[in-house]
Write a structure and sequence with these properties.
141 residues, mainly alpha, Arc Repressor Mutant, subunit A, 3-stranded antiparallel sheet, 4 helices, 3 strands
């Protein structure tokens, strides 16, 4: 459906642009009288303005739809990551490492650590460190 909207929108805008070019050409045509220029220009404006409005409206609608889809994807990703943190914490008495979280969530290490840091702040988690220096997040259970 979005593809059809894009095609229609760009078709409308192309039509409006073509008529705008004709208006400019006629405006500078020395063979046309001022009265004919006004009449032809008005006719082209009447034929070009509605498709331009439709094209702009469709593109605006598509942009809004795209933004909404991105927000829904972000919300779904946030829910997925929270669920993983909950499951990992429940499985090991509230203890979660960035490595394990990154592995299960399939995130790069820096993103996993940043996400866990935010969760730790949100839930008041404590920190422990392994002998290798890795952070263990201890979430309240």
């Amino acid at each position: 459906m979005d593809l059809v909207k894009k095609i229609v929108a760009w078709g409308c805008l192309s039509w409006a642009a073509l008529l705008a070019i004709f208006m400019v050409v006629i405006a500078f045509d020395p063979e046309e009288s001022p009265q004919e220029k006004r009449e032809i220009g008005l006719g082209l404006l009447i034929l070009g303005a509605p498709p331009a409005v439709v094209g702009i409206g469709l593109l605006t609608n598509l942009r809004g739809s795209h933004q909404k889809r991105l927000e829904e994807q972000d919300a779904a990703q946030e829910e997925r990551l929270r669920r993983i943190v909950y499951e990992l914490a429940a499985a090991d008495s509230g203890r979660v490492t960035a490595f394990k979280f990154a592995q299960v969530a399939q995130l790069p290490a820096d993103e996993a650590k940043a996400y866990l840091d935010q969760c730790a702040q949100d839930f008041g988690a404590d920190y422990d460190f392994t002998d290798a220096g890795e952070i263990i997040y201890r979430f309240p259970t």
